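Case 241 in the screening queue. Each case pairs one protein sequence with one candidate compound; here the compound is magnesium ion. For every case the pipeline is the same: read the inputs, emit a complex structure as tokens, and attach any notable structural observations.

Predict complex for case 241.
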Amino acid sequence: MKSGSKDVVHAVIFDFDNTLVNTQKVITDAYNQIFEDMSKRHGISKKILSSEIEKIETKMVRNVDKTKENYDRGSWFEMLSKNLNMGLSKKQINKYRDKFYSYMLENVEFSEHTESILADIKASGKKVALLTEKDDAIEGFKQHRVEKLSFSRHFDLIVIAGDTIPERKISPIAFSKTVKMLNVSPKNVLMVGDRLDIDVEHGKEVGMRTVLFKSYASSGTGLYKPDYIVSDLREILSIIK
Ligand SMILES: [Mg+2]
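Case 241 output:
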């Protein structure tokens, strides 16, 4: 992994969802609980509910125009009710929405090594930052999700795109602003994330070296190849040596 011709790493920027935490797993588990309840009350199988929410997800966040992404599960459950003729009231929809977000807050999955990885990067004299997207559905939700995790104390900088800065992660400006705030040159920064179209593409566009983390979610497609592909975040420690 180590290459003598590469620039020295002075800072590492991490993505949050599906990189530092296994968001995909928690979302699937939250749906399972909610669909169990919906299935009992409305007589629609969990399989049909799961396949319908997948279609809604494709429509809402896998569209070509990323500026129109909408992650609010309130509106997703409203669509689910409409598409499957469930006739859920606004109150029931809100109940499921609240259940979804409290499940996400209470159930976080991450590697037992995360804390020591971040501490080791810091101990080697490098800066550690987080660049994550705002969670639109609830004001301040992302900050809450991040700060309740003990490993977040290692970050020199936390940027919540959409809150800390106006730009979202669909814009490379969110990445260049984060690098600027760290007061380092992009060529000395390693960007670690799970999405080829966002973390790797924009990381490369602003001149960083990039690491694709491939363990929790599908990485999609992007314009650039990552400099490294890892399936365990501990591999970062040998990259930055
Ligand atoms: Mg991510």
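Case 241 observations:
- Residues 23-42 form the longest helix (20 residues).
- DSSP finds nine helices and six strands in the chain.
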